[in-house]
Amino acid sequence: MAHGAFETTYAAAGDRYERLPYRRAGSTGLDLPALSLGLWQRFGTDNAYETQRAIILRAFDLGIAHFDNADRYGPPHRAAQQVFGEVLAKDLAPYRDELVLTTKAGNPIGPSPYLKGGSRKSLLTSLDHSLRDLRTDYVDVFYHHRQDPATPIEETVGALADAVRQGKALYVGISNYDPERAHEAAVLLREAGVPLLVHQPRYSIFDRGPELNGLLDLAAADGFGLVVYSPLAQGLLTDKYLHGIPADARAANSAFLSPDVIDDTYRKRAAALDDLARTRGQSLAQLALQWVLRRPEVTSALIGASSIAQLDHNAKALDAAPLTDEELALIDEHGVHGTGLR
Ligand SMILES: NC(=O)c1ccc[n+]([C@@H]2O[C@H](COP(=O)([O-])OP(=O)(O)OC[C@H]3O[C@@H](n4cnc5c(N)ncnc54)[C@H](OP(=O)(O)O)[C@@H]3O)[C@@H](O)[C@H]2O)c1
Which of 174, 230, 314 to mutate to test the pocket of ligand 1 (most atoms within 8 A of CB)? Predict the structure, then answer.
């Protein structure tokens, strides 16, 4: 994907490390920004390159130096990494040492048996392809995107560890693993001398999975961090759907968020949470981000953004006072697990 040669006019903001706290990933040595930016949606052919570039650069200016990618992200698959690779080559190359770049493999990107799963073949060939797309020699974190019960975990974990030994990744992660399998992976990786850095589960006020299945406790016990995705429930934990579905919103344009989930039950719960946020002098989006970050096991909240304004707004999430026990109880009352999820 080439968008014409030009000299960058970008120089990173001098105060970029004064905006956001950085938090330690479990008992590892790596700190990550409290907010990270993911390129799952809106980073591909569905958005103007200049908008995508502007969002990435603003994120870095805000101290969001952690960018989450996967071979799957786009549309089409691979496009998000190609966009990021172009921005890296043209604008962010002088700052490569300051960036934490991730990629993931194993979620299907095609019909071939080697474009999915947890085999050594799938993982390591995907990583090589992603490095070419991202235009970098190494990623900071290489993830297995989702557990694959059909492949021996020793093979999957061995491929992750070898990516580090080959110098193609600095750390490894897993995503969407249930706690039992995550523990197995953590033990095997520790034995291999490549400790698990992070697990990436979905977690939000409307998705209490990591509380209910014990993953938060496991992260603390096994010493890995949690980078939690969709903390805004893809936008449902913002005020954008309280009075309808805007034409440019994800629920109107993406296969991953159905307009059907925006029903009266959802609206009632979201409105109650929005009221609570207002009494605290913040927005629902900011409350939702502050809520996931109240747990020390959560290293970073992994957000998406379709505009610079959203990023600027969300970056202020931690400006408000900590949540009180009374407020947390109210959030539990209206933040019912499963709201808006399929
Ligand atoms: N490991 C996995 O399997 C997995 C799965 C999913 C996601 N992820 C990672 O997590 C990242 C984030 O996921 P996500 O995009 O679902 O996260 P999210 O932060 O829950 O949702 C982001 C979306 O919410 C809307 N939004 C954000 N801020 C807003 C604001 N202040 N006001 C109104 N609307 C706002 C925007 O949607 P609009 O387009 O409607 O403006 C934005 O694209 C992904 O990019 C990816 O890196 C990983």
Answer: 230
